[in-house]
Amino acid sequence: DLKIALATYMVTYHEGCANWVQDNVPDAILFKFMSTVEAKYPTTNAFHNYSHGIDVLYSVSRHMRMTSSDSFLSDTSQFLLLIASIAHDVGHLGVNNQYLVETNHELAVKYNDRSPLENLHCAMLFQIASSSPDLNIWVNVGKSLYQEMRKGIIAAILHTDMLKHNDMMKELTLLYQMNSESFDNLKPADVVMGHPSNAQLLMNALLHGADIGNPMKPWKLCEMYAHACLDEFFAQGDMEKAAGVPVQMLNDREKVNRPNSQVGFIEFVICPMCESLVNLFPQLDHLAEDLAVNVTKWSQLWIDEAQPSEEAAGKVKARVEKISTRCQAVCRDFRGIQEHTNLKYV
User: Fold this and answer.
1) Mean pLDDT of the chain
2) Which residue is catalytic, options 48, 92, 121, 159?
3) Does the annotation mark 48 as catalytic?
4) Binding residues
5) Closest CA to 62 of 272, 266, 283
6) pLDDT tens digits, residue range 256-301?
């Protein structure tokens, strides 16, 4: 299968950990692991499927290359982040945590209502790897390193829970404020050196940013993924109506305007995430550029579809202008700095 081969290739030949992977993870084991992960992703989910896993893996790998992550992450840290990326939604049920809690689902009961889906994804990843010797991607890893990598994977995946989003934004803002000179000069290694918790925070940010980063992609991808995600939300909304539980805000297909929902999502969730990522990694300023374009396109689609009053349209345009201004403000000319510090831009 092309997708399985692609995932295997991206992990095997990722520049920051390729030598370590090729020395320590047998090709056949990695391929079979990827194949099993693919089989555990439901094919019925409109959005949370293996294609999403591949997309997140690609985004994380690309962003690590662009930010020269080998300057601040070890080869094993980069490997664990790639594995977390491909499996971060494995076994996804096509509904969110709130639905599982509201319906007293067995996963919510098992995990005490705390990140039931993310706990499932973590558990399934390690269950796959431990289920057979020919799936054990840790076969040549010592106990101490395995425990360290397991801890890093679990932390990264658990931080994809949207309930942790606001706290992560506060942590990233504080990290940047306390180390702005290092980040502005493309020297995150200065921030990570001697502070492994900072390395984990940056890994969490890279994975979370890729996971929810559809609005920061070129328009065609942004639009495609938004509709797929909303299709899944609406399917959950139908289930909520059938179960007699409250229909969550974005899940009612009869009430939600798709373009307008994206403007709000970008304004309140994605724009702060984008600001944090580009502050920490100026090389990722293309994310802010695409976001500014996309929020403008969504707002125009809303105006075209909803035919709002002049006053309502004006209010939305004002919101969009503020978002665009924030995106523009966070972009800065880092290429001169990059030449000075001899870092690569790929």
Assistant:
1) 96
2) 48
3) yes
4) 48-52, 88-89, 211, 262
5) 283
6) 999 999 999 999 999 999 999 999 999 999 999 999 999 999 999 9
